[in-house]
Design goal:
The chain has 4 helices and no strands. With 123 residues, it is mainly α. It has one domain. Helix 1 (5-29) runs antiparallel to helix 2 (44-60) and helix 3 runs antiparallel to helix 4. The radius of gyration is 14 Å and the shape is elongated. The protein starts with a helix and ends in a 6-residue tail after the last helix.
């Protein structure tokens, strides 16, 4: 059974909000639920990256084309933010934590791909 249509769009939007909120908490605390092998120092930049993800999800939930476009931009900013965090040393640049960052970025890219593929479902 697959999720399709607007239900799928809503699920992806909600996922982005929740995932972004988790990233905001990591940014404020340095770790959340022990997700990272090595805690990061609390960072406004990390929290901002998570906020982009949540804002993208909220925009997608408008179910409007402008919201989908804005959501794609915000989630694209989240992916760029991940790259920034790694290249500046705010996030781990090696080991298991880097793999988790890459997988998270790939999931965010998948959200963008899904929204793009469902473009006609938006008003």
């Amino acid at each position: 059974m697959t999720i399709s249509g607007r239900a799928g769009i809503r699920a992806v939007g909600l996922f982005a909000i929740v995932a972004g909120a988790g990233e905001v908490i990591v940014g404020l605390t340095g770790n959340f639920l022990g997700i990272l092998d090595h805690a990061m120092p609390p960072s406004f930049a990390t929290a901002l990256v998570g906020a982009f993800y949540s804002l993208g999800g909220a925009a997608i939930l408008t179910l409007r084309k402008w919201g989908a476009a804005l959501g794609i931009v915000f989630i694209g900013a989240e992916i760029a933010g991940r790259i920034y965090l790694v290249t500046t040393g705010l996030a781990p640049s090696s080991g298991a934590d880097l793999v988790k960052i890459i997988i998270g970025g790939a999931i965010a890219l998948g959200v963008i791909a899904y929204v793009t593929a469902r473009w006609r479902s938006f008003d």
